[in-house]
Automatic annotation (TrEMBL):
InterPro entries: BTB-POZ/Galectin-3-binding, BTB/POZ_dom, SKP1/BTB/POZ_sf
Transmembrane segments: none
Limits of the BTB domain: 23-93
Lineage of source species: Eukaryota, Fungi, Dikarya, Basidiomycota, Agaricomycotina
Listed name of the protein: BTB domain-containing protein
Amino acid sequence: MSTDNKPDTKLQKLAEPFRFNDSNVTLRAGGVDFQIHKLVLSHASSIFKDMFSLPSDSSPSQEGSHVVEVTEDAQTIHDVLSLIYPNAHNIDLDDFHTLQRVLLAARKYSMDNLRAILAKTLEAKIHVNPVGVFAVACLAEAPQVARIAAKETLKWSYTEIINCNSPEVNRMRGGTLRKLLHYHNVCADLASQTIRKWATQCPVDHHKNAYAKTSTSSPVDCRQSWWNSYIDCVERQSTTRPIQPDYKSIEFMRVLSEDTHCYSKCSTATMRLIELADQLKQEVQQAISSVQLDLDDDDYLI
């Protein structure tokens, strides 16, 4: 008898923690049988709860157990069961691919509690790979996480987003990616406008302690000398990465210190410069927060 279609030993071992003597349902994934309990599945999934409420006379059976064949692979079912069964062993959710697989399965089977837990886990990875998290959040229909991730992508350049080699991005719908890039462009333009507007409206008296008057220059001269250079610097950064510019960076201080006859090195002046940088950053972030990423049902289709 041919055994070509029989799962290998490694796959069969995935089911070992889930072969209960008192099982009353079998999940079959990729030829691997997980002998588990309807009660546990029904509690975790409204889809399975509704399924088990229907007559099952026409369903195949194994040793008197109701058999449900699913399209997921054995590894995915193993991971899902590991998360919904009490006292089951932990799985590595630090692995991005594992998290994606389990999230998609949880979405498919309406495992709302599990989805909420996994969404929090996914959100925690935003600072590492915001573009990948955005893609997975869209695939898993997690709009709140998707929007948070989209805002974090504003720390990336347009080119970095396009060239992101995360495999999750390749599964994302083209229209959804275009929305993300459009959102990035809108925020970049708004950041540039906000910086220019703030710079022109910021009165000299408001930051007069941020520079020193010398015998050869007036406060207005000083402002024109380094203030415009600084604004040019942060605007260039903002048009590339709308919320990335560090307004208190070494580059900031370098721009100011190039004009040594205007820049005061006293601690009071330095602190005032930092205060101004913080104010500008808040203005930009407040402006960007008004931009909403437009996501609809089509963006969650796989």
